[in-house]
Amino acid sequence: MDPVIDARALTYEYPDGTTALRDATLSIDRGERVAVVGANGSGKSTLQLALGGLVDPSAGTVRYFGQTTDAERVRDRLGVLLQDPDDYLFNATVREDLEYGPAQLGTSRRAADERIARLAAELGLTDLLDRPPFRLSGGEKQRAAVASVLAFDPDVLLLDEPFGAVDAHYRERVRELVGDHEGTVMVFTPSLDLAAELADRVIVVGQTGSIAADGPARAVLTDVCLLRENGLRPPAPVRLFEGILDADEMPLTTAAARRFLVDELGRESSDPSTTR
Ligand SMILES: Nc1ncnc2c1ncn2[C@@H]1O[C@H](COP(=O)(O)OP(=O)(O)OP(=O)(O)O)[C@@H](O)[C@H]1O
Ligand SMILES: [Mg+2]
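^ thats the input. predicted complex w/ magnesium ion below
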């Protein structure tokens, strides 16, 4: 099957001469869960804009669904959530922002209403639907922006830092909603803990806007030298068990670390040789 996004040798230079993306080649298959990680200023958002067709690369091409290089022709299949929710919410009320995508797609009113009510309930927006987006807190805005992009159920989600200002409770809700998304997911984040929670594949953007690594989440997230060279902090469990466990048994998430410790402690307490 054709990749949903196939980018070849993408370079992007801002008008002031800053080269933010250098010769980036990547191909994303349908259904993949990809985290694009990198230090601040490495070029993640620029890559997201180029893949989402919101900027024209200075060199290179992006092909969508094996069909076209014109992002506008597949605009309704790409859910491009920008890093700053203020750039994403532009209607008079939160409800209108959530209704906008489904209305553009011609989704039936009833189906759209049901979907919006469900998303609003999950993301704690039900009582905020009639507010103007600019009268929300930072985390509420971010939740509203995530709800707006999920409301039209795009084939491909390209989410730039969807968790930044979101508190622990709603972070979990966002993670579940993104995890349950049936299409393809790309999340752009500097947090490797989030990458570990969400992704099967991790792409590292190096400090100069080129792709420094691209591979299975376990291989990339346990390569502590590669991560540190690129200004990244390995996931918490990897830092904890670094030098103690091999990559293949390393827990990548807090939940996995907890399970590992419970298993180990259970084993120790049932092993007579360890009883004091
Ligand atoms: N509008 C702009 N004009 C000029 N340079 C820019 C512009 N936007 C970003 N840059 C520069 O391009 C480089 C990449 O920026 P980008 O926003 O893609 O990084 P990022 O990896 O998303 O960082 P963060 O983790 O802070 O979101 C940086 O050096 C940044 O200063
Ligand atoms: Mg960014």
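The chain has a mean pLDDT of 93.
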